[in-house]
Amino acid sequence: MSRKDISDYVIHFTKGDTPEDAFRRLQKIISDGFLLGSDGMIKGGYDCVCFSEAPIESLPNGLINPDYYSHYSPFGIMFSKQFIFERGGRPAIYQPDNEFISLSESHRWRHVRYEPPEIDFSWEREWRVKCESLQFDEESATIVVKNVAWIDRLKMEHESEQDFRVIEYSLIFDTELAEMYRTPFQWKVAPLRK
Q1: Positive or negative, the Cα torsion across 113, 115, 121, 122?
Q2: What distance in Å separates the CA atoms of residue 7 and residue 120, rounded to the nearest whole number?
Q3: What's the CA gap between 6 and 16, in Å, rounded?
Q4: How many other β-carbons are positioned within 10 Å of the β-carbon of residue 184?
Q5: What is the arithmetic mean of pLDDT over 20-45?
Q6: C-alpha distance from residue 72 to each of 42, 63, 160 (Å)
């Protein structure tokens, strides 16, 4: 069943003090091919990689709350829920803090404090994978950027890196052989705005 408020995908948004910082962090994540887990803001100190299941169509400015504020940028990595589920990912469990101990140890990493109206992060529609790092590649992930201009920049910078790589290899090999080390841009990219 297709619904506008439900997505088959989850997105890990990057953070940064500026859009440039967030974009550079995204580029590093893509280059590394993994997301690092963190225990920040996770009760119990569990390392997790966190995502939002908010539909991409509802995020033209990135992941923001009703007060139009967020510490997330409009850059990230998107995966199918199936991919995340197969790696142990599950939706967060929103509940009062005093109910944390009522969860079995195997589920405590999913706890998110929820005590409305003062404490309500349910707008994040959070999923988590309990892990130190989550590996991915071009087949399993889609890059999320703010708009089409950032897609162009992402591709342009990739081409510049490849040109530099060929120049480096041409110092060792002939130019024709050095060109064989050029890697095409093969990522799927989704803009939040056109």
Answers
A1: positive
A2: 21
A3: 27
A4: 8
A5: 96
A6: 17, 6, 28
- Distance (Å, whole) CA 166 – CA 170: 6
Report d(CA 127, CA 84) in Å as an integer.
9
Residue 25's closest CA among 63, 68, 77? 77
Q: pTM of this prediction?
A: 0.91
Question: What φ, ψ does residue 162 adopt, rounded to 5°?
Answer: -70, -40
- Sign of the Cα pseudo-torsion (62, 67, 69, 72, in order): negative
Tokens describing residue 92: 């967060």
What letter represents residue 124's amino acid? E
Distance CA 8, CA 57 (A): 12
> Mean pLDDT for the chain?
93
pLDDT at residue 66 tops 70: no
pLDDT at 69: 62
Contact 65, 103 (CB under 8 A): no
The pLDDT of residue 68 is above 60: no
CA distance 78 to 5: 17
Element (H or E) spanning 113, and its range?
strand 111-113
Q: Where are the domains of the chain?
A: 9-143, 148-186
The pLDDT score that the predictor gives to residue 1 is 53
| Alpha helix positions (H), 64-135 | 81-86
**What are the two backbone dihedrals, phi and then psi, of residue 16, each rounded to the nearest 5 degrees?**
175, 150
